[in-house]
Structures are given as structure tokens and as C-alpha cells.
Amino acid sequence: MTPLSSRPRRWRLLSPLLAFAIATAAAIQPAHAVTDVEVGATDTWSVQDDVNHQLDTGSVHRTTDDALIGYGGLRVEVDGGTSPLNGILLRGFGITWDEAQAFESTVGVEIDGLVVRRTLTVDDESSYGRFFDTFDNTTDAPLTVEVAFGGQLGYGTGTNQSAIAATSDGDTVITGDDGWVSWYTPSQGPGSASANGPSATTVGTPGFDGALDRMGNFLRDPFDNPLPEAGHEANHPAFVNSLVVPPGEAVSLAHFVVTGLSGTDAEEGEEPPAPGSQVDAVEALAAELTASPDLSGLSDAEICALANYDVTTISTFDAGLCALAENVLASEGLDDAVGVVGGSTSVDYDVVGRTITDLIADMESGETTAEEITRAYLDRIEVYDQGPFGLHSVLAVAPDALEQARAADAARAEGDDRPLLGVPILVKDIIDTADMPTTGGSELFEGYVPSEDAWQVARLREAGAIILGKTNLSTFAFSGHYSESDFGQVWNAFDPSRSSIGSSGGSSVAVASSFGAAAFGTQTGDSLWGPSGAASLFSLRGTDGMQSSAGTMPLTIIQDYVGFIAQSPEDLALLLEVAAVDNPDDVLDDVANGNRPEDWSAYLSEDALVGKVIGIPEEAFDDPFGTSVVSDELRARFAEFGAAGATLVPMPAAPDPAERTFEGSTFYEGWSQWLEAHPDSPVSTVEDISEWGGERMTDEDLRAFEAWRAEYRAMLAEWMDESGVDAVLYPTELSDISLNDSVNPSFGRRDPESSASGVPTVVFPAGVNAHGNPVGFQLQGKAFQDAELLGFAYAFDAVADGRVLPDITPPLPVIDAE
């Protein structure tokens, strides 16, 4: 059995909005996010191992027909433990494919003295895999441990929602009396053909004391939250086992997962399977594995340590050997086990949550220096962002960052008063920097350093900013749901099990985690507002042309927007004063000429919302996943608009744009222009980047695309005028965000029209929901209403104080450098 690179797939389209993105993803090269293996004769599993994206969870990202979509993950809770790894989706195993049949840990993961290792063995004759996890106690006292095995099997509450098909004792309630449970996605109600592939998971020996403690919610702390019977969270089963691991000994768990194919889809020219046949098949195999578990390749000690199987009932194993088997499984992988290592800083100035405004005031007063600020950020990046358990938000730091800082301090001492002097800013690694690589998150551009800075980067340097480093992203800004590059995947700033959202996830996580004062991001669809909302930050997708995109790798020419992710409206105003200026060499920003504000800060007034009417479009706050914990919180926050002086009114949904009137590929044209501007690029043709193909756009096509967008902006202005509103309110996220090993869509969303038309949208935080996750709003306006919208966000924040800080990256302890 070998990894696949070209086997035909039947990936299901999870959302109509993603059609363009999925087509592009299939074309962008290289695609080494996971390792694909044949499981049985007809299925393919994509396993999260220690390859390019380095999720390294050992879970299954997806199967041929999405029977699993982020399943087989592990959460472990050590009673009384203090490790940051307690309770989160575990990673860092160094999971490696043996090119034959198994994915194995190359190191153990240490959590408060417990070392966890895992092996996934797949079968090339039948469609199943065996997850075998061991838990070694390296302390001199017993450890009480809870283990949750599971993940995601569906999403939402429609035809993509998973449902329990059956359990081994004939009902649909999972208990320790069951040997297995099966799931499917009913295409037309209970009992109908499974739209996605069905699956089954074994529990253990039915009725055995250690088979199962309870079922939990794998999405959200499965040790405290039971698995719901309905709703989106019911798609996330967790099999929870309670273990007591003696000192110096080990306990193991085995779970067999069986997958099938869709009952409604088939390869071209073939008929779908008979209705129900795939569900029957996974249940039959799960029943067989429950009665006679496949223990091949396991040692006697490993088998004897099983907690969820009664080894005396396994006919293929002599339980008498357990009296002879040594229960210490730790001979390999314990001495080099990895865990979270603490860190410190030598800087007595705390940068956590300090805005640009704060930093400038403290440098001007002499409380701190640019060198101290830069050193503090670098220390935090080293401790919290790097290594197997880091957030993976920063790909590179400037080799002369501290030299830049010392130069800024010297300039300030000489009276230099440039507006951003000594302020460290991060840059999304799709934007050119002349002193660091610009890779687009792709190995194709690894090590490539452009000859000059992008336009906006150069403006920040001129204003005295320190360009501190490059942030991680979704490769070539493709995904609006995850930030997964060839150099690692970004983890959420508030919950180290979840997605950061994409494609600017590295920028948002880095700013939220205080790795830099602000960051550049980009947006084609949702890549400023999505990541900013997930990280409790501020952003502005301005009117087309407000900020130049010159020097930025493209996704959709003209629609791409280069903006900022920041910690306050004041910070955004400072950055825009510097960067939102005309680039005489960029024809695409000419549309904003004569319409840029002269003074952004002048719009920041606590009275900005007084007398304003804010419209709420139909269904804008209805989560397509069917959840309400986010929308309930946001609706409760509507009152704060009233407290700021605004009136909220309902309005109809936005009109659709006119039919496209131009030819050619915006992706192909954008990359063609980028390559012409970068003759030293390691890639010379668009075909080297993508198999998607396409044709160049003529100048007439480009102008027609701009005119089409301008027409849509006019339609939206008329829609607002007819509704009598000054701005339109949308949410950022509408559901809790998915775990980082899952697939699109990673959150419930209702997109505003800003990306499709080029009208401005300001993004701002609004506290947290009942689950403790950040929530936020967007206000959309008419063309060139940018600064006024920024003022609205300022006024709301003055009342709501909506920004929150993550608690997983607290201030570092200060240790004297001497």
C-alpha cells in the first residue's frame, strides 16, 4: 500500500460558495497537506501526519466521500495537571507513514508526566483503520486520566449533518453495552441513502467495565460537555474513557473506524450503491472487529494493557500471556518525549495587548524603547509560536529586527517624529519584502526574496515602522476557512484546538497573541474579516483602490485587497494615514483618487453613531449551521448600538450583482502580471503554480471588470438609500469555529457584499459568546464611506469595549538578562 498522488477522487462540494475555491485548490501545486492512502479496495483516507502542514494529530482529514472530516483525534485530561496540552486536540506526535500499512508516532507527547503515543494501522483489503493509543505514566504516583477519542462526521443541521444509524444493541443511544456505533448523513430523512459516506466506530467489548465511560462533545471540551442528541454539535462524537495509570506502567486504547462510500454519488458511468448497502457494510465489518479485533502487529504487553477490551474474550489471543508480559511500554519514545516547555523574557516592559497608540506614548515618555518592544515580541514568538505545540503564525523574522529597533531609538533621540517610528509590524507572507522571503506559503517560492518592498510596506518603513516578520497563511491565500501553508498550519489564538480561519490567519493570530503591534492581511472573500473576527481584532476592507495591492501575490486581480489587522480603531487610523495613499504606478488604485480621507483620525468620535440608522438584512444573523450561541450574543449586543445613539432597523437582503460581462481569468491575469513584475522569480509561468489554466484578460476586460464592480457598488448604494440606512450590519462568524483538522466550511457565515463589489466594510469585536469564544460585527457602507465606518466602529467600541485578549499566551516571566 502506498500514498496516492493521482487517484480519482469524489470529494463532495460542501458549500456552493466554495465552488471556485475548491476548483482552485485542486489545481495549486504542490498539494502535500496530508498523506493519502488506499484503505480497502475503494476508499482513500487523508491522514494528518507530520508532512507539510504539520498538523500531526494522526486524525483523518477526510475520506473519499467524507465519511470522516477530521476524525480520530485525541484529547487527554490529566487530573490535577497544569500542562497547556491538557484537554486540547493533541498534536506533536511526529506521525510518520511507514510506506506500507501504518502511521506511527516517532516521539511521545508528554502531559504532566503522562506520555501519549499513537499508531494508525490501515487495512488494504477492508475499509477500516485501527487507532491504537498508549498512555505511559512516568511518575512515581498513579495518574487519573480521561481520554476522548473522536472528531467530526458532518456539519450543520441539513443533509450534511451526521446521524446515528444504529448501535450494536439495536437502539441509537451509545453506552458501554455497545460494541460499535454507526453514523450516516441521511439524504432525504431517516433511513434514506447516506449522502456522504457512512462510518462506524468500535466502542470495545460490550458490557466490559472499561469499554466506555460516557459520550462527550469533541468540538467543545468533551470531558464537561455531553454529546448532544441534535444540532451541529451532535456531529462531533467523543468516546470518553476514564483511566487510572499506575506509576511506571501503561494503559492502551484501541478504536477501529470503518468507512464507506456515498449512497447517492458514483463515478461517471456507474450507478450509486443500493440504498442502505454501504451502511449495512460498515456495520457488518464493525461487528466483526468487535467480536474479533485485529490485533496484528501488537506486542503481548500492548494487548494486555488494553482498557476498553476484555482480552480474556478475544479468541485470537492467549490472555494467559498477560501474567508474563511486562506492563511497561515505555522502552521506546519516553526519553525523547516532547511537551510544552516554558519560556521567559529579559524585557521588563509588557507588550501584551498594547496598541500602537500605547507603544508610541510609552516610547515618547521614555517608559520603554523600540529595542525593548522588539525584543519582547521576539521572545514571545520563540516561546509561544514555534515548535510542535506553537501557534505557527509567524514564518520568518527580520534578521536585523533589533538593529532596526536600535536605529529607531537613535532617531527618536535626535528628534525624529515620524508617525510609526519604532513600531514593529508584521506582513502576510504573500506581500513583498526586500529583506525577507516572500513565499505565498508555498515551497515553490521557498527562500525567494523580492528585489523591493511592496508599495504599502515601503510606506510603513518610510514612516519609521520596523518590519518585524512574515506571517503564515493559506497557501496563495486560497482558503477562507483555514490557514494551511506548506510550512505549517496556523492554530487559533483563543483555543489551540481550532482553526484560525483563513487566509490571513497568521496575521490575526500573531496580533492577538502580541507577537507584533499590527499586521498586513489580504482579502479576496473573507480573509480580513474572518480571521479578525476569530481573534477579537479590528480591520477595514476599504473601497476598491483605497490601498494599493502592488507587490502582492494575487488570487483574483482587482478584487484582492491589502489591508491591516489591528488592535484598535485608533491604530487603523494611524496605519491608514501612512499607507492609504495613491501609488502612481498602480492603475488599479486610481479609482480611489480624490476620494481618500485627508485625516482618518478626525472621524474617531464617540458621537459618530448618534442619529445614524443601521440596517440589518434579512437572515444576516441566522447561522446556516443552525446554531444560535453566536447569534444570540450578537443580538444581545444590538443594544449597544442604541446606547451609542444609533437606531437599528430591518431591511431586505442585498440585491444580486448584474451578470458578468468580461472575459478571461482573473486568477491567470493576476499571476501573469505578478510574474512580469518579478522576472527573478523561481517560477516563470502561471502553469508552474496552477494546473487550473485560464486566459489572459485584455485591458478592455480589466476595465469591464472594474465597471462591473462599480455598477454593483451603485446598486448597493441605491439599496441602502431605499432602506433609509447609513450602514449595514453583518456578523463576522455565526458559529463556533471548527477544529483545525477538519474541512470546509469551518464556521457558519453570511458574507457581506464588500468583496464582491468593493464597498468598504469595517470589522470590530463585540466580546465573547456563552462558550467564551470571540464574536464580532461588520458594518458595510457605500463607496468611499471608509473613514465614516471607522468612526462608527470607534463609537461602538467606546460603549461596548468589545476586544478581549487570549489567555493561552499570557505575559512571559521576566528573568534578568545577566
Describe this structure in words.
By secondary structure, the chain is an alpha+beta fold. It is built from 16 helices and 29 strands. Strands 17-19-18-22-24-23-28-29-27-25-26 form an eleven-stranded mixed β-sheet, with helices on both faces. Strands 5, 6, 7, 8, 9, 11, 12, 13 and 16 form a nine-stranded antiparallel β-sheet that branches. α5 packs antiparallel against α6 and α10 (569-579) packs antiparallel against α16. The longest helix has 25 residues, at 699-723. The protein starts with 18 loop residues before the first helix and ends in an 18-residue tail after the last helix.
Blueprint (SSEs and pairs):
Elements: H1 19-27, E1 35-39, E2 43-47, E3 60-63, E4 71-78, E5 96-97, E6 102-104, E7 109-111, E8 114-122, E9 128-137, E10 143-151, E11 163-167, E12 180-184, E13 199-202, E14 214-217, E15 237-245, E16 250-259, H2 277-291, H3 300-304, H4 356-365, H5 370-385, E17 394-397, H6 401-413, E18 424-428, H7 455-462, E19 466-471, E20 484-485, E21 488-489, H8 505-512, E22 518-523, H9 529-534, E23 538-541, E24 561-566, H10 569-579, E25 613-617, H11 629-643, E26 647-651, H12 666-677, H13 686-689, H14 699-723, E27 727-731, H15 754-757, E28 761-768, E29 774-780, H16 786-800
Parallel strand pairs: 18-19, 18-22, 25-26, 25-27
Antiparallel strand pairs: 1-2, 2-3, 4-10, 5-6, 6-8, 7-8, 8-9, 9-16, 10-15, 11-12, 12-13, 13-16, 14-15, 17-19, 20-21, 22-24, 23-24, 23-28, 27-29, 28-29
